[in-house]
Design brief:
Elements lengths: L1 H19 L6 E5 L5 E7 L4 E8 L2 E5 L6 E13 L3 H11 L7 E10 L6 E13 L2 E14 L2 E10 L20 E12 L5
Antiparallel strand pairs: 1-4, 1-10, 2-3, 2-10, 3-5, 4-5, 5-6, 6-7, 7-8, 8-9, 9-10
């Protein structure tokens, strides 16, 4: 009886150890903040506002066999800049509240589409967008360019910020669109899985 119990414990320990080990079937994407940026445009009744955010260190693990993803892409909300001090002060204090929510994140859960080991791939990242501490399910179309161990990611999408609970930055005179266009260009390194 003791031998059987010992064998059961040994099997459980081996299973838990195997689950804890990293999968060799995962591709790893590491983005370099120095070579990455987030641009946004907001149309108003008088002009179009252009701005930028910086990316922080971001890493994504992808299982190419299942499309399952783990990791997060992080934008530095505090770095938001439109080139106008008064407008930026209002944006940080009243709109994105970066003093309370210093990060804007996208957490991919699944990648749809085939990722080529070299050249250009068009995929869709399904995941969660976190803004003002609130989570929103969101799908992002992404163009991936891989050359050796180097990669670039480009995404262009519209964020319905009013529907997500942010305040409208417009005034009585200046009317702002209820969506903001976001363009992400990220560069980094790619470590392919053993199955790629």
């Amino acid at each position: 009886m003791k031998v059987r119990r010992l064998n059961s414990c040994l099997v459980c320990a081996l299973v838990l150890t195997a689950l804890a080990l990293p999968s060799h079937a995962q591709s790893i994407f590491e983005l370099d903040p120095a070579r990455s940026s987030v641009h946004f445009t907001l149309k108003t009744s008088l002009h179009t506002v252009h701005g930028t955010f910086k990316l922080k260190n971001s890493k994504i693990n992808l299982d190419p066999a299942t499309g399952q993803a783990l990791g997060v892409i992080v934008a530095d909300a505090v770095s938001g800049d439109t080139g106008n001090t008064g407008r930026d002060t209002k944006m940080h204090k009243e709109i994105i509240e970066s003093w309370m929510y210093p990060e804007i994140t996208f957490t991919p859960r699944k990648i749809e589409g085939h990722l080529e080991g070299a050249g250009i791939s068009r995929i869709e990242a399904k995941g969660t967008f976190r803004l003002l501490g609130r989570d929103q399910d969101f799908d992002v179309p992404v163009v991936v360019h891989i050359m050796g161990s180097d990669l670039t990611l480009d995404a262009d999408f519209s964020v319905p910020y009013l529907a997500w609970g942010l305040k409208n930055p417009g005034t009585f005179i200046l009317r702002a669109s209820d969506t903001v266009q976001v363009m992400v260009h990220a560069a980094g390194r790619w470590t392919p899985s053993a199955t790629n």
